[in-house]
Amino acid sequence: MFLIWSLVSSKTLSQRWFSSATTPQVLRTGDVLRQSRLFTEEDVIQYSKVSHDSNPLHTNPTAARDVGFEGPLVHGMLIASLFPCIISSYFPGAVYVSQSLNFKFPVHIGDHITGEVQATNLKENKNRYLAKFKTRCLMNGELLVIEGEATSMSTTLTFEQKQCKEH
Amino acid sequence: MFLIWSLVSSKTLSQRWFSSATTPQVLRTGDVLRQSRLFTEEDVIQYSKVSHDSNPLHTNPTAARDVGFEGPLVHGMLIASLFPCIISSYFPGAVYVSQSLNFKFPVHIGDHITGEVQATNLKENKNRYLAKFKTRCLMNGELLVIEGEATSMSTTLTFEQKQCKEH
Known about the structure:
Chains A, B: Pfam families: MaoC_dehydratas (PF01575). Chains A, B: GO terms for molecular function: (3R)-hydroxyacyl-[acyl-carrier-protein] dehydratase activity. The structure is a homodimer. By secondary structure, chain A is α+β, with helices and mostly antiparallel strands. Chain A has a domain at 25-39 and 76-159: Hotdog Thioesterase (Thiol Ester Dehydrase, Chain A). Chain A has four helices and seven strands. Chain A has helices at residues 41-51, 61-66, 76-80, 82-90, and strands at 25-26, 32-38, 95-103, 112-125, 128-139, 143-154, 158-159. In chain A, the strands form two sheets. The first copy, chain A, has a five-stranded antiparallel β-sheet. Chain A has a two-stranded antiparallel sheet with strand order 1-7. In chain A, a hairpin with a 3-residue loop joins strand 5 and strand 6 (143-154). Residues 1-11 of chain A have low confidence and may be disordered. Chains A and B meet through helix 1, helix 3, helix 4 and strand 3 of A and helix 1, helix 3, helix 4 and strand 3 of B.
């Protein structure tokens, strides 16, 4: 069940956007699922607690400024949690197989972030669907702050609605 | 500051282990930093809240068993948070540059997980150190459940002690 098949990205992708999808749809190559969120100081505190990550960059304004940032940063892995959140909100029960992450620009508390996953390859095997996605986070709708790829496995490619909360 | 240099992994790596390091050391290629943790149901609940990830695999025993698991799974991204946690506990203020993750086996609530980061390439540029790590999570000290690579940037390679909590 955890074997990762070799996937080949599609060439030119048509885009369908489903940020407000409420009727049944079947995921197709090129489709984009998205979710926006603003990470608060409370989010960062709660994430520090559950991850045990005590990096002062996230909680100490002085420490953050000492290394050149405007203020405390949101944990990269918390921002990246948008990707499995989006995928599982459309496909409850989906199993996360892989994720690559390149953190390109810092995200400060209060920044408005949109996560996007775009289906690049869909493969069916014995009623299991392996989906490969291009994954990106944009700040204020334009600055690319995280990019990478994800793969998930689910029992269907049909989805009805997203369930993640939006801020 | 967020430019990722091209890094080449070292060939044969000697290993030093620092899970209980308390005296000043300088990180060298081949060194392994590690941290163990047991993820509880409360951890999973708190992570679901902060990540907004409502995948029933993590909170609903029936949903988890329906797709072949023994019970609710720990979120892969929560387990993977061990990597930046380990790095920043040795190098407070370190900036996370990249992470790749392959989730190879499921981790259930209560499983004992050890995270390891092994330095594979260290590069200095203008008093900033770019460190590339091989990253692994092992269940019960032997089963490889997550593997990948990480890159971080810090102002020093000298460390004194880890700060992450252990269970």
